[in-house]
């Protein structure tokens, strides 16, 4: 038993040494989250749809760069992929820094901000896929679920830390600190990654992205339905709180992130024990309950509980459904498979901003959580159908 535990710890440490760079990348994604919607809406003077676009555009950029990210990691290696992604984050920081400097000219300021969001989205796409591929290369394909899970823990922990940190920075020193922080963090990560040895490129046939996308699409749709709730929460929780006259919206993101991490740490082994579909069905149901609580919440305390339930529910959906498909992709096209599966997550987050912005414009901010809950329930039913049909 001790030797087994020691081996497990060694594997985890190898994984953490790689997904640490995902943590830094998503810390850069989390820092602007609770600041930019209010900045665009209240300081630049644009409407709620444009405020949603300021967040959602990043996810669309991530979505459309997935084929490039997968091909880059499969062809040139996962370490170069992480390096290119970090350079992209540094460039995004510079563009984001220029936006508040041009605040007196709202349209140019918005355009620089949106450009920074596009670059950040593409950079995160490359880092996320490359870090997972690098982790799998280090510990073996049999530990794919663990690599995906720890990468997700790193990402959501970073977002949970980054959101209130960004608010504190903007309140204390101004919005310009957001862009500066991104550039500085990316520079730090480049210094840390440079001496690390790169894994070998896996030889073999490279499947086309579209053929891989077709293989993973049924499972990806279940992931997408569940992930829209997260996109709605990250984009509009600040404006939802403001509409109620409440403070502390960023802590909903923290509650979501903590619950997400706790669920993964405690229940990640349930995927191998109970099966990916069973875990996904249960988790999507829990997420739907959390989103319904956000819709009906009478106070910030209940909103925190709803956000925590949503995070707990969404936590295992990605690795649970991912386990059902990644084993069907050749190792030489593993990064393409990871990228194709992640497309559905990106698509959900990309449409969440504009779509829920329209819902909020017509029905108020609370209604977006009802819509998100219904979509999560649809993902649960889709997963049930896949399980019954053994797709």
Describe this structure in words.
The chain is mainly alpha-helical and 391 residues long. It has one domain: MFS general substrate transporter like domains (Growth Hormone, Chain: A), CATH 1.20.1250.20. The chain is built from 16 helices and no strands. Helix 1 runs antiparallel to helix 6 and helix 2 packs across helix 3. The longest helix is centred in the middle third of the chain and has 36 residues. It is globular and about 55 Å long. The chain starts with a helix and ends with a helix. The mean pLDDT is 83. It is a multi-pass membrane protein. Keywords: Cell inner membrane, Cell membrane, Membrane, Transmembrane, Transmembrane helix, Transport. Belongs to the major facilitator superfamily. YhhS family. It is found in: Cell inner membrane; Cell membrane. Its main location: membrane.
> What's the total helix number?
16
Which CATH-level-2 architecture?
Answer: Up-down Bundle
User: How are helices and strands ordered from N to C?
Assistant: HHHHHHHHHHHHHHHH
Q: Tell the overall outline.
A: globular
* Helix vs. strand class: mainly alpha
How many domain units?
1
What are the low-pLDDT stretches, counting only 5+ consecutive residues below 50? Answer: none
Tell me how many strands there are: 0
Classify the helix fraction into a percent range. over 70%
Q: Any idea of the CATH topology?
A: Growth Hormone, Chain: A
Rounded to an integer, what's the Rg over CA atoms? Answer: 20 Å
Q: What fraction strand?
A: under 5%
CATH C-level name? Mainly Alpha
What gap, in angstroms, lies between the N and C termini?
37 Å
């Amino acid at each position: 038993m001790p030797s087994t535990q020691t081996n497990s710890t060694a594997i985890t440490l190898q994984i953490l040494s790689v997904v640490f760079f995902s943590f830094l990348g998503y810390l850069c994604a989390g820092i602007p989250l609770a600041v930019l919607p209010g900045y665009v809406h209240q300081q630049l003077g644009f409407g709620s749809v444009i405020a949603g676009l300021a967040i959602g555009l990043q996810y669309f950029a991530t979505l459309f760069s997935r084929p490039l990210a997968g091909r880059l990691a499969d062809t040139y290696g996962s370490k170069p992929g992480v390096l290119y992604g970090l350079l992209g984050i540094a460039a995004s920081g510079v563009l984001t820094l220029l936006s508040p400097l041009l605040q007196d000219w709202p349209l140019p300021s918005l355009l620089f901000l949106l450009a920074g969001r596009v670059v950040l989205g593409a950079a995160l796409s490359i880092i996320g896929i490359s870090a997972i591929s690098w982790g799998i290369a280090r510990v073996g394909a049999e530990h794919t679920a663990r690599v995906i899970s720890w990468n997700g823990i790193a990402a959501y922990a970073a977002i949970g830390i980054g959101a209130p940190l960004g608010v504190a920075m903007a309140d204390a020193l101004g919005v310009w600190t957001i862009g500066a922080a991104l550039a500085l963090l990316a520079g730090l990560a480049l210094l840390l990654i440079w001496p690390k040895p790169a894994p070998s490129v896996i030889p073999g046939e490279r499947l086309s992205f579209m053929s891989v996308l077709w293989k993973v699409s049924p499972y990806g749709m279940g992931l997408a339905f569940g992930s829209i709730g997260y996109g709605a929460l990250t984009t509009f929780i600040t404006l939802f709180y403001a509409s109620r006259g409440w403070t502390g919206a960023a802590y909903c993101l923290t509650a979501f992130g903590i619950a997400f991490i706790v669920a993964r740490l405690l229940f990640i082994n349930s995927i191998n024990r109970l099966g990916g579909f069973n875990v996904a069905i249960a988790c999507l149901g829990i997420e739907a309950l959390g989103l319904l609580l956000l819709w009906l919440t009478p106070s910030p305390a209940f909103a925190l509980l709803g956000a925590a339930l949503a995070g707990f529910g969404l936590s295992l959906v990605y690795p649970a459904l991912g386990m059902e498909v990644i084993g069907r992709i050749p190792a030489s096209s593993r990064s393409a498979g990871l990228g194709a599966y992640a497309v559905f997550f990106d698509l959900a987050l990309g449409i969440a901003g504009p779509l829920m912005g329209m819902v909020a414009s017509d029905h108020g901010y609370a209604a977006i959580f009802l819509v998100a809950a219904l979509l999560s329930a649809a993902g649960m039913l889709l997963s049930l159908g896949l399980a019954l049909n053994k797709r």
